[in-house]
Design goal:
about 350 residues; alpha/beta; 6-stranded mixed sheet; about 20% strand; binds guanosine-5'-monophosphate; binds manganese (II) ion
């Protein structure tokens, strides 16, 4: 069930030209964050709105092919321009996040702005900053929700190949190409409709997944050979990376995407963690099989959240301190880890 109180804002959306809209999404946007934002961007432009996507940070180069990428304003790179857009906005869409802390200092501007906010998101426990919401955790992705949102606004006929491609990219990224448990028959039906609208599935897969630097693969080799640690008695895998290691391989935004999944591919492992020293903070990614709650783990110990099987967190402490904490708290979850799920049977 989608929690939807956007009825009151629909007349404004459908009133034609003459309003300023900002769409923003979370820190280091991934394909769902950017894909849902640009899909909504193209739709609102078709409704006659003046729209800008403002991201809190940069994002991986394998997302730069998305139609509309050249219109996106990165707050870190163009802070003044981003601030004036937020200030002038009548309406701010917040996509793929539900707590303003996920958009860094841009959150302060959104909070100060007179604009109404509308959150479209699929993460647990919204903080409640929003005026309007179109929200559920029972969906594969924010891109799937954007499809539902456009459809509920009688806008299906406005979905063209560009809009469809952005949404399709978000859906395949957040479902691991329809593998994860969040994938439903509704997800597949939407994907089928998007293909009917001209999406080239093989091409989008290649643009997203076969579009990385050689450095990423060198680092991947190093991680698999030297850095992947397994704790079989806790069914857990861990990879940590220092700043020096990132520098040695000249790692750019997005180059470590997916590394957290390596551990889960090992027979018997139900929980995998990737902990990276990103200099401004230590960033963590968690993935699990079965019912081990990554989001509760991230929230309880690492100031984070997310979904049951995919979550993240961050810390201002040193990498050593974070690793020590991780290793200390992990055994307290032993029972849950051992009963969560077994890929041995
Ligand atoms: P990733 O590991 O791919 O960065 O993130 C996995 C999931 O966890 C995403 O749904 C993302 O929104 C959520 N997530 C990642 N980092 C954080 C964080 O620091 N705080 C919260 N609340 N959620 C996070
Ligand atoms: Mn998402």
């Amino acid at each position: 069930m989608i929690e939807d109180n956007t009825e009151g804002i629909r007349p404004f959306l459908n009133s034609g030209s003459g309003s300023n809209i900002v769409i923003t999404t979370h820190h280091k946007p991934d394909a769902d964050a950017l894909g849902s934002s640009l899909a909504l961007y193209h739709y609102l432009v078709k409704l006659g709105k003046k729209v800008t996507v403002v991201t809190p940070t940069d994002y991986p180069v394998n997302l730069h092919w998305m139609p509309g990428n050249d219109t996106v304003i990165n707050f870190e790179a163009e802070a003044e321009k981003a601030a004036s857009l937020v200030e002038a906005a009548d309406l701010i869409f917040c996509l793929d996040f539900n707590d303003l802390s996920r958009i860094n200092d841009l959150g302060l501007l959104v909070e100060k702005s007179d604009a109404k906010t509308i959150m479209i998101d699929h993460h647990r426990d919204p903080s409640g900053f929003d005026d309007y919401r179109f929200w559920t955790i029972e969906t594969s992705s924010t891109s799937e929700l954007i499809y539902d949102f456009i459809k509920s606004n009688d806008g299906a006929e406005l979905i063209d190949t560009d809009i469809a491609s952005c949404m399709y990219a978000g859906i395949i990224a957040d479902t691991g190409s329809f593998r994860y448990s969040s994938t439903t028959s509704h997800t597949h039906r939407i994907a089928a409709e998007l293909i009917d609208l001209g999406v080239d599935s093989a091409k989008i897969h290649a643009l997203l997944l076969d579009n990385f630097s050689l450095n990423r693969y060198r680092l991947m080799g190093y991680v698999l050979y030297k850095k992947l640690t397994v704790y079989p008695e806790l069914k857990t895998a861990l990879v940590s990376l220092t700043q020096e290691e990132l520098m040695k391989f000249n790692i750019q935004t997005g180059d470590t995407e997916g590394f957290v999944n390596f551990g889960l591919g090992i027979k018997g492992i139900v929980f995998s963690a990737l902990i990276i020293d990103r200099s401004v903070m230590v960033k963590m990614s968690f993935r699990s099989q079965g019912r081990f709650p990554c989001n509760e783990f991230a929230n309880a110990h690492f100031n984070g959240g997310g979904h049951l099987n995919a979550a993240g967190g961050s810390s201002k402490e040193s990498l050593e301190t974070v690793l020590e904490k991780f290793k200390n708290v992990l055994p307290t979850y032993k029972d849950l880890l051992l009963t969560s799920y077994s890929n041995e049977n």
